[in-house]
Amino acid sequence: MWKKPLYEPLPFLNPQLKISSMKAASSNALNFSSTITQTTPTQPFPTRFTRTHFLKLPQSFQNNSFLRASANPFNSSFLSISSSLNAFLESNAFLGWNNAPEIVIDRGGKAKALGSKDKVITVVLVGWLGGTTKHLKRYVEWYNSRGIHAITFVLEVKDLLCFDPVAMLEQRISELGNEIARWALEKEEDGRERCFIFHTFSNTGWLIYGALLDRFQRREGLKEKMSGVIIDSGGSADPLNPKVWAAGFAAAILKKLNSSMNGLESAVTDSKLQKEDPEMIEAMVLSALEKFFTFLLNMPDVNRKFTTVINATLEHYPPCPQLYLYSTADNVIPYKSVEVCIEEMSKKGVKVFSFNFGTSPHVDHYRNFPNIYSSELHNFLKECFAISK
After folding, report:
1. Picking from 57-66, 117-126, 160-169, 228-237, which range would have the lowest pLDDT averaged per residue?
2. Does the structure show a pLDDT above 50 at 245?
3. I need a surface site. Which of 129, 183, 230, 266 has the fewest CB within 10 A?
4. pLDDT at 267
């Protein structure tokens, strides 16, 4: 049973959007026949905020020898950081709407964007671990310039410093699912149908997408509203591999740590952390995280939940095409694992498209190859909506 969202929509401070011009984002974008000078009303899409509660560590975790500081020196540092955060609540905007402007229809009666004449489209952008709304901005702009609304969903590293991250994430996923259902199951005032696509990043986004699929099975008509799925740097033949989880978390933690260290004053440049060999620090973090995830992913309750999510992704997929964007150089998600997943989905009858960017790092394909990335996305979406008519 779906429940009513736990929030009320927040009004936009600026209800009108003034548009002076609209240009293609790249050489692969669609051309607009005329300049937009009209003022178009903005739909009352909410931007939602929530708070992350820092809770006490469950007794089952406290009793485990791996998590005792005496048995794990690395953990003592982690627990000291977490305990210092236990005293307050951290405000965090994890879900937001980005409304696309109305697209002018040319003299031939054809819209110069994908989301306009026949259907209203929304993309659900599910970020990677450590990704922020700012990181997703370029993707939002790409979709908005083509008349497609965008929902962003992010999970930052600091969000997982609570001691019940699974429950926190389940609540957020439920709220995201409610928001998608609220929008998709209604029609536009002019009678146009609404549909949505997913664009996920890393295995974090891919698994959140799977959790939503599991919920959509209990909501009639919702999966049929899905027109396409884009999986960037995600999808795995072995999603419960502790090494994959450790690599993902280590990448997010070390990137955040490096960013924080770069922002410090010169007075702390002699810190012990900075004097250590970066490779040694990375090896220590990876080793500790591998041990942690080996323990965590084998806990019966956790394993059962993840198995349900993975089954939804691989067995209860929607009747729409999928696009896998990945690279050989990805040091978080092994490219061979992605290719096995592509092969398995193809065998199941799913229409699968893929592109290997070769040298670009994890979730960094668009920044390194903007024109190719844009072209692959554009061609895929044209295929999706040609099929869905």
Report:
1. 57-66
2. yes
3. 266
4. 43
Identity of residue 152: T
Q: Could you write out the three-class secondary structure of the chain?
A: CCCCCCCCCCCCCCCEEECCCCCCCCCCCCCCCCCCCCEEECCCCCCEEEEECCCCCCHHHHCCHHHCCCCCHHHHHHHHHHHHHCCCCEEEEEEEEECCCCCCECCCCCECCCCCCCEEEEEEEEEEECCCCCCCHHHHHHHHCCCCEEEEEEECHHHHHCCCHHHHHHHHHHHHHHHHHHHHCCCCCCCCEEEEEEEEEHHHHHHHHHHHHHHHCCCCCCHHHEEEEEEECCCCCCCCCHHHHHHHHHHHHHHHHHHHHHCCCHHHCCCHHHHCCHHHHHHHHHHHHHHHHHHHCCCHHHHHHHHHHHHHHHHCCCCCCEEEEECCCCCCCCHHHHHHHHHHHHHCCCCEEEEECCCCCCCCHHHHCHHHHHHHHHHHHHHHHHHHC
pLDDT, residue 103, reads 63
> So what's the pLDDT on residue 3?
46
Between the alpha carbon of residue 388 and those of residues 1, 110, 319, 376, 381, the distances in Å are: 28, 18, 10, 18, 10
Kindly report the pTM of this predicted structure: 0.70
The pair of structure tokens assigned to 236 is 């795995």
Cβ contacts of residue 362 below 8 Å, gap of 6+?
128, 202, 233, 251, 327, 330, 331, 332, 333
Q: What is the per-residue pLDDT across 325-376, written as a single tens digit (0 to 9) for each?
A: 999 999 889 999 999 999 999 999 999 999 999 999 999 999 999 999 999 9
Mean pLDDT of 264-287: 61
pLDDT in tens, 112-130: 566 556 789 999 999 998 8
Contacts of 229 by beta carbon, 8 Å cutoff, 6+ apart: 197, 198, 200, 209, 317, 318, 320, 321, 322, 323
